[in-house]
From TrEMBL:
Domain ABC transmembrane type-2: 39-262
Listed transmembrane segments: 41-61, 123-146, 152-175, 182-202, 238-259
Region span, Disordered: 1-20
Organism expressing this protein natively: Kocuria sediminis
GO biological process terms on file: response to antibiotic
InterPro entries, per the entry: ABC2_TM (IPR013525), ABC2_TM_bact-type (IPR047817), ABC_2_transport (IPR000412), Nod_factor_ABC_transporter (IPR051784)
Protein name: Transport permease protein
GO CC terms of this entry: ATP-binding cassette (ABC) transporter complex
Pfam families the record matches: ABC2_membrane
Recorded family membership: Belongs to the ABC-2 integral membrane protein family.
Lineage: Bacteria, Bacillati, Actinomycetota, Actinomycetes, Micrococcales
Superkingdom to which the source organism belongs: Bacteria
Keywords for this protein: Antibiotic resistance, Cell membrane, Membrane, Transmembrane, Transmembrane helix, Transport
GO molecular function: ABC-type transporter activity
Amino acid sequence: MTAPAQPRATPPRPEPAPLARRVAAQSRYEALTMLRNGEQLLLLVILPLMALVALTLTDLLDADVPPGLSRVDVAVPGVLTLCVLSNAFSGQGIQTGFDRRYGVLRFLSTTPLGRGGLITGKLVAIVAVLVVQYVLVGALGAALGWRPDPVAVLVSVPVLLLGAAAFTGLGLLLAGTVRAEATLAVTNLVWVVLAAVGGTLFPSRTLPPALSWLVDLLPSGALGTAMRETFLTGGPSLLPLLVLAVWAAAAWAAAVRWFRWS
């Protein structure tokens, strides 16, 4: 007499990791990818640090240094603004553009991470890289004689995050609507223009009056002004913050509307 057949055990279905863990893993991957890439490292760290040394050791900012302060006091806020531009706009825009070209975005959007988790991971990675940039710029600035008010350092954090929100939206909008090669060319060109005459490293008042008001309405000019006001006068005025908020809202609305995942 044969034994009754035993029911086949159903193999357990693997469950996805919790959302927070998935986002953390994606954020770590995004941040390390940016910092390990030689071109990205040049853009994110080396060029801003070189700019800080150049602005501190030359007389390019002498006309903008208030009485009782030094060049480095004016240079550091501008370089931190450049870090946001390099990180949130150029760095993330280029990386997202090529991820889209090679089908990485389309693949990840169908995994348990999902589109929302992917975007959240990118945002967290930008903040993580910005922390690294802030620490490095602050350390080099301190070595050059920068002695900021601790309150100003705290106030600068939400200002930088607002700027990062605006530039991230613009970077994703560009990366999600044009070819990767065009994203690479445009982001690098915009980086150079905004760094030189976009109110990033140099106050807009150094430009001709016909251009100064226009630069103040750019996200680079608004963030540069807000950062300089934070460290030089104790806090940003309302206008540059409103300009940044408008840019952030418009950029993200456009990115949600027109971003293509493939």
